[in-house]
Specification:
155 residues, alpha+beta, 6-stranded antiparallel beta sheet, 6 strands, 42% helix
Length: 155
């Protein structure tokens, strides 16, 4: 029997095991909990409707929050990550787990004992970073100069 649930949730990743309840919190203090199907579950948190949306600064803040949650989850679990910005209704999460059960189970088994390394960077002063790179690289310096003269050659 499937439990009927409502509301949009942010998805983080699929883990082995049944429902674990609250597994961590995000940077806003919202609980990250699991929704399960058979012996796999998906780490989710309730959505504020702005996940991965808005201006560049808002998206970067959401991405950094996603990364912090994923790092917390990965410390104690094997995880099949879900793409940043993915939101679904709770019932849809159960359907995704059900339809992808075999694939998720295989991936979880293959990922067991493996470590994922993500490298992310953001700069407040992107123009300053480009100028710094241009000073060190003649080709970038040429492109920056061309972009200043010809709008068609913008970086």
């Amino acid at each position: 029997m499937m439990v009927v649930m409502s509301g949009e949730v942010k998805l983080y990743g699929v883990l082995a095991g049944k429902d674990r309840g609250v597994i961590t919190t995000d940077d806003a203090g919202r609980e990250v909990y699991t929704i399960s199907y058979r012996d796999i579950c998906c780490a989710v948190s309730d959505s504020n409707g702005l996940y991965g949306a808005g201006d560049k600064k808002s998206v970067l803040k959401s991405l950094m929050s996603y990364q912090v949650v994923m790092e917390s989850i990965i410390k104690k679990n094997t995880v099949v990550p879900i793409k940043f910005g993915t939101e679904l209704g709770k019932n849809d999460v159960v359907r995704v787990l059900e339809k992808g059960y075999t694939e998720f189970a295989e991936r979880l088994s293959a990922f067991e004992g493996k470590l994922e390394v993500d490298v992310s960077a953001s700069w407040e002063d992107m123009e300053g970073v480009i100028r710094g790179v241009a000073m060190e690289n003649a080709e970038v310096r040429r492109l920056v100069s061309a972009a200043c003269v010809d709008p068609g050659e913008r970086l």
